């Protein structure tokens, strides 16, 4: 059947991007160079600027940015891709030119990225891999359409999403979808806030029922296979960090409407996806999911209901056991993450216009889990089958009140769990920063 090319911002809305917000801000005219290192006066924690080029960016919160040895951090710059020695902080440009950094392989440490072959951001691309130590580079595959979002644990498969080409799609569909949330009106013509307009925009995309597919690309042979097809909006793909055949994906759209979290096996043909979370109340939302470093648990942002009660929820893959960790409104974050040993969590904060409407939420926070034990050791009948509750106690690390949250900070732990890496425009242009988890010494 005839297929249609969809380009630009419309392509991202139709296919979906892993990171919805990626605001680029410029350095303020006449502003001094951002500091390289300082101690946050509000928190007492040391912060360092890792990047040296304005417009640099660390990876999305669930993408691996570290080499297997734990000695290199990789991030993107306006002129290419840079690797930083985590001990010396020495920077090495390993890829020159405008490319899209994808992730770092968990087995070989190769840095994977895309080079566009046309002006269409969702059009043909070459998928490349570069050794961060030697800069040796190879072409992994060529991809005619879609967007890659994940790499499996043994680096044998890449996975992405694409609009299907074997089903006719109206050529004017992209034009019919709302492009700018500020221009969206309610059904009765009333003005909406930006956040409400964004929900209408997402809902229109979801209701269009565009036929999509999840595909894999073999990194050795370049073979492309379709794993799953649906008219649900497929997005947010993540391979398990330890199980090469286990893939997580989401149904994108308004979170209070979709069943978002799903697991599927790529090594079992026709394997039916498994839903991770089932809604139990109206306006309950779950999303921004990620795997624990050992691959045993899926963690996600859970709100019961939306904007009122906040949890970081865990689903143990092997047993189905659930663990819900409660947090206060001002500690809610756009994205959460967990340390390599699973003992700590972190969040990148959020402004008052976001879903939590936190009055004082613009902070990078360290979150320490605290279990809620049975009183006097007295167990409820069937307690082993109930949700295990807990609390996340928050410690503020970075004052983000100067940050524009249209750029999501995307916090992640370094391999030694001593620092949190994030991106910020707190000094004007986008830069990559890290905050030390231990308090600075006098």
UniProtKB/TrEMBL annotation:
Name used for this protein in its record: Oligogalacturonate lyase domain-containing protein
Pfam families: Pectate_lyase22
Signal peptide: 1-20
Gene3D superfamilies: YVTN repeat-like/Quinoprotein amine dehydrogenase (2.130.10.10)
UniProt cross-references to InterPro entries, sorted A to Z: Ogl_dom, WD40/YVTN_repeat-like_dom_sf
The organism of origin for this protein: Caulobacter segnis (strain ATCC 21756 / DSM 7131 / JCM 7823 / NBRC 15250 / LMG 17158 / TK0059) (Mycoplana segnis)
Highest taxon of the lineage: Bacteria
Annotated GO biological process: pectin catabolic process
């Amino acid at each position: 059947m005839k297929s249609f090319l969809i380009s630009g911002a419309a392509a991202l809305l139709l296919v979906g991007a892993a990171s919805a917000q990626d605001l680029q801000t410029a350095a303020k005219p006449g502003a001094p160079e951002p500091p390289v290192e300082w101690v946050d006066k509000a928190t007492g924690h040391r912060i360092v600027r890792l990047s040296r080029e304005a417009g640099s960016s660390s990876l999305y919160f669930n993408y691996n940015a570290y080499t297997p040895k734990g000695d290199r951090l990789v991030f993107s710059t306006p002129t290419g891709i840079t690797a930083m020695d985590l001990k010396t902080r020495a920077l090495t440009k390993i890829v020159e030119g405008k490319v899209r950094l994808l992730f770092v392989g968990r087995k070989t440490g190769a840095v994977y990225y895309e080079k566009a072959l046309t002006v269409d951001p969702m059009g043909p691309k070459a998928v490349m891999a570069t050794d961060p130590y030697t800069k040796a580079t190879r072409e992994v595959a060529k991809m005619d359409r879609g967007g890659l979002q994940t790499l499996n644990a043994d680096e044998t498969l890449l996975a992405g999403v694409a609009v299907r080409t074997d089903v006719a799609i109206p050529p004017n569909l992209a034009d019919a979808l709302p492009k700018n949330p500020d221009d969206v009106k309610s059904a009765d013509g009333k003005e909406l806030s930006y956040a409400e307009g964004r929900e209408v925009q997402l809902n229109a995309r979801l209701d269009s029922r565009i036929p999509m597919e999840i595909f894999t690309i073999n990194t050795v042979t370049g073979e492309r296979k379709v794993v799953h097809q649906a008219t649900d909006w497929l997005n947010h793909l993540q391979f398990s960090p330890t199980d090469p055949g286990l893939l997580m994906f989401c149904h994108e759209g308004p979170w209070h409407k979709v069943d978002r979290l799903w697991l599927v096996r790529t090594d079992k043909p026709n394997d039916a996806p498994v839903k991770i979370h089932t809604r139990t109340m109206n306006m309950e939302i779950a999303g921004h999911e990620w795997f624990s470093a050992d691959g045993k648990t899926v963690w996600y942002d859970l709100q019961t209901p939306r904007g009122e009660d906040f949890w970081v929820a865990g689903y143990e893959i092997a047993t189905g056991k659930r663990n819900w960790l409660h947090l206060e409104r001002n500690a809610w974050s756009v994205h959460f993450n967990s340390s390599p040993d699973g003992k700590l969590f972190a969040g990148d904060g959020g402004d008052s216009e976001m879903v939590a409407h936190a009055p004082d939420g613009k902070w990078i926070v360290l979150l320490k889990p605290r279990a809620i034990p049975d009183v006097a050791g007295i167990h409820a009948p069937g307690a082993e089958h109930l949700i295990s509750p807990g609390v996340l106690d928050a410690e503020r690390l970075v004052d983000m009140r100067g940050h524009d949250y249209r750029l999501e900070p995307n916090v992640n732990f370094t391999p030694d769990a001593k620092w949190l890496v994030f991106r910020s425009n707190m000094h004007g242009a986008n830069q990559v920063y890290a905050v030390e988890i231990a308090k600075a010494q006098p």
